[in-house]
Design goal:
single chain, 393 residues, Rossmann fold, 2 domains, 7-stranded mixed beta sheet, 6-stranded mixed beta sheet, 15 strands, 40% helix, 18% strand
Length: 393
């Protein structure tokens, strides 16, 4: 059934279809509409779930950790400072191999205070062990949440999954969405059968102390699972496509790449703007294209190599910055091509921090710069006059 939904409503509807037994979250802009919608759904009796009100994001993460450890399907959501407040528990959830699903409505991190979108929040915890996925539009928001539960709960994986959606642009924007029937979702996503859980009749220990004789092996195990997930995620995506008649391969998506000489690699809602710009430049006879990163962790290195090794010039567009270094997407892409005989010229660009608009003019500017000297970290649309203002102590 096709409905006109706010992005946050699309998340709430998707989560409802997945039937979590426990939901807990703390309100924070621009995530609040997601859990407001779910709270209403639970209050109206449309979902048999326990909605737990808490005093902070740290507590919300702790609640879903505990519930997941007892074998219950769970959900939470947050943004920006809220995700950072959760960070201690975020690492614990992955280390305990719990299939928690979290929606991050991406928002800039303070200070200065900003409630607008960039992707700095998720990049701050990208090494926690979570599977990280990015949505381009409302339909992908709906579809990725359904797939996230299948991925996380697969007994070959048993790791948490975070779905990232750009704050305001997607959370508060309105688009038509194909909302599947409950019967379809039930066919794709069966009831959760935990591989392990806390049970007084069959005791186990979760999150115990690991001395140097054991700790390293836990990290190696998570790393190996991420590597295996690069095959499992496309497998689940193919099954999704078979049931719902839409979807991607789950890792990346190529746009007009067949004969492209210049390509922009990016993730999130900016992909739509890049695609529109590619269409306009193609109409002018320019051979340009785009690659969308859907799954960022595990990093789909081989998939990116396969589609980009024959391209002449690649621009990596980051909506975050590892201060003191470069954009995270850029650093990863440079790494996977390091030492390869066949590789494109890769340049890194940072744009959209704190909600700064990334429009077609910005994208054209990036394509124009690709034919010039290679850059590692060039900021797009910076107001030079503001940089000249002296910051007084």
């Amino acid at each position: 059934m096709r409905e006109f939904l706010e992005g946050s409503q699309a998340v709430a509807r998707a989560v409802k279809l997945c039937k979590p037994g426990v939901i807990s979250a703390y309100p924070i802009t621009p995530q609040t509409h997601i859990v407001e919608g779910l709270a209403q759904i639970v209050a109206d009796g449309e979902l048999d779930s326990q909605f737990v009100n808490v005093e902070s994001e740290h507590s919300a993460a702790s609640v879903v950790l505990g519930a997941s450890a007892t074998g219950v399907r769970v959900f939470t959501a947050t943004s920006s400072q809220g995700l950072l407040l959760m960070s201690e528990v975020i690492f614990n959830i992955a280390g305990m191999r719990l299939p928690v699903i979290l929606t991050c409505a991406n928002r800039a991190v303070s200070a200065p205070i900003s409630i607008w979108n960039d992707q700095q929040d998720v990049m701050a915890i990208r090494d926690s062990g979570w599977i990280l996925m990015f949505a381009e539009n409302h339909q992908e928001i709906m579809d990725l949440h359904l797939q996230a539960y299948r991925i996380a709960e697969d007994h070959r994986i048993m790791l948490p999954v975070m779905i990232n959606m750009d704050g305001y642009i997607l959370t508060h924007g309105m688009e038509p969405v194909d909302v599947p029937q409950q019967e379809q979702v039930d066919k794709f996503l069966p009831p959760y059968k935990p591989l392990y859980k806390l049970d007084v009749n069959d005791p186990i220990t979760l999150g115990c102390l690991a001395d140097p004789e054991y700790y390293m092996e836990t990290r190696v195990a998570i790393q190996k699972t991420h590597e295996e997930a690069l095959n499992i995620i496309p497998e689940i995506a193919r099954e999704f496509k078979k049931i719902f008649n839409r979807g991607t391969d789950g890792l990346i998506e190529c746009y007009k790449l067949e004969d492209a000489k210049q390509v922009i690699v990016c993730a999130g809602s900016v992909v739509g703007t890049v695609k529109d710009t590619v269409d306009e430049l193609r109409a002018q006879g320019k051979k340009v294209g785009a690659v969308k990163i859907i799954t960022y962790r595990p990093l789909p290195a081989q998939a990116l190599i396969d589609v980009l090794e024959s391209v002449e010039q690649v621009a990596v567009l980051d909506k975050s910055i590892s201060l003191g270094a470069y954009g995270p997407f850029f650093m990863d892409l440079k790494t996977i091509f390091q030492g390869r005989k066949k590789a494109p010229k890769i340049s890194g660009f940072v744009a959209g921090l704190g909600g700064r608009d990334i429009n077609k003019k910005s994208i054209i500017q990036i394509f124009d710069k690709l034919s010039k000297k290679q850059v590692d970290c060039e900021f797009i649309d910076v107001k030079d006059e503001l940089l000249k203002v002296k910051i007084e102590p």
